[in-house]
């Protein structure tokens, strides 16, 4: 199913280019063909055998696809027995990560977090709330005996972040990433039935890389809203004022800030990859997000660490193919 998605995504990209350049190819026909491609691209969901929870599964899949597209692609490449559970885990991550973005009142956001804290307790008492994500997370817990502590750690860290969202140092960014993104990676390892210290160590480094890259990607988005979560210590070190971040500063001092932060992310990525031969081969697919991280960091390097460059804000239509190659070559 993923290979079909991969090939169709590339075909759609090439077809769009052909339509733009070839006037003899009518717009009406091109629209019709693109519609067929789009319908086939998601055929894997229709081919999935029906089950009592199919509607809740589809909800989780669509949620991850909409808000976490790269990990949506990575999930499609996980072993079949863990795929649905991985979408439950990722959708829980999306739900809790969006609380701070979608709710302006801090008290309301904390109430949303409390809902999830209560939901986790109920899930482990076999009385989950009747919401799609909670139900699928309960099924994942039942199937794979997922550790409650990782779910609670994600919630606790996000609650702290609501109270104090700024980052004083890069170490604070790493800690936040460890407690949130790395915890998701640990749950994914559990979903494929692996408990291995080296795999956990690699997952920790990958999670820190993912968290830092997410921070960098969000810089333009937050700047438009006059917010920044870049480490204050790094900004001060290079004499960059928050107002310059908001204005989209492209001076060398700002590029140096991004370079320093990206270097930390790359260091974690390399550390995770250095453990490839020491972790069970069955875990390699869990580390496929490393391919997406590599693509972003290389793209950032190509534009001299200008985090505002338009090329970094566009979806990489070749990413499905890149991830497929990574899977064939053994992940990482």
UniProtKB/TrEMBL annotation:
Its EC number is 2.5.1.32. The keyword Membrane applies. It catalyses: 2 (2E,6E,10E)-geranylgeranyl diphosphate = 15-cis-phytoene + 2 diphosphate. Its main location: mitochondrion. Pfam families: SQS_PSY. The keyword Hydrolase does not apply. It comes from the Eukaryota. It is an enzyme of class 2 (transferase). Keywords: Carotenoid biosynthesis, Membrane, Mitochondrion, Mitochondrion inner membrane, Transit peptide. It is found in: Mitochondrion inner membrane. PANTHER family: BIFUNCTIONAL LYCOPENE CYCLASE/PHYTOENE SYNTHASE. Involved in the assembly of mitochondrial NADH:ubiquinone oxidoreductase complex (complex I) at early stages. May play a role in the biogenesis of complex I subunit MT-ND1. Belongs to the NDUFAF6 family. This is NADH dehydrogenase (ubiquinone) complex I, assembly factor 6. It comes from Owenia fusiformis. The lineage of its organism: Eukaryota, Metazoa, Spiralia, Lophotrochozoa, Annelida.
């Amino acid at each position: 199913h993923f290979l079909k998605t991969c090939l169709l995504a590339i075909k759609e990209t090439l077809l769009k280019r052909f339509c733009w350049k070839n006037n003899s190819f009518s717009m009406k026909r091109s629209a019709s063909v693109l519609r067929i491609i789009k319908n086939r691209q998601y055929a894997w969901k229709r081919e999935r055998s029906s089950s009592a929870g199919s509607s809740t599964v589809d909800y989780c899949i669509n949620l991850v696809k909409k808000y976490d597209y790269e990990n949506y692609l990575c999930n499609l490449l996980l072993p079949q027995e863990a795929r649905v559970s991985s979408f439950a885990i990722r959708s829980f991550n999306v739900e809790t990560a969006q609380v701070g973005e979608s709710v302006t009142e801090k008290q309301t956001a904390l109430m949303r977090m409390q809902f999830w804290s209560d939901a986790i307790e109920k899930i482990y008492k076999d009385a989950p709330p009747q919401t799609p994500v909670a139900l699928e997370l309960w099924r994942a817990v039942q199937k794979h005996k997922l550790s409650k502590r990782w779910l609670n750690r994600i919630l606790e860290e996000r609650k702290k972040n609501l109270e104090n969202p700024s980052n004083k140092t890069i170490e604070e960014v790493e800690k936040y990433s460890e407690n949130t993104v790395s915890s998701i990676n640990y749950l994914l390892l559990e979903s494929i039935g692996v408990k291995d210290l080296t795999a956990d160590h690699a997952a920790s480094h990958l999670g820190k890389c993912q968290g830092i890259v997410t921070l960098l990607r969000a810089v333009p988005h937050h700047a438009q809203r006059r917010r920044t979560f870049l480490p204050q210590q790094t900004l001060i070190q290079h004499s960059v004022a928050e107002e310059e971040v908001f204005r989209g500063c492209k001076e060398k001092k700002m590029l140096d800030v991004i370079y320093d932060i990206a270097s930390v992310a790359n260091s974690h990525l390399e550390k995770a990859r250095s453990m490839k031969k020491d972790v069970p081969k069955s875990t390699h697919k869990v580390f496929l997000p490393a391919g997406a991280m590599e693509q972003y960091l290389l793209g950032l390097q190509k534009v001299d660490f200008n985090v505002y460059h338009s090329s970094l804000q566009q979806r990489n239509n070749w990413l499905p193919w890149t991830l497929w190659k990574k899977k064939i070559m053994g992940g990482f």
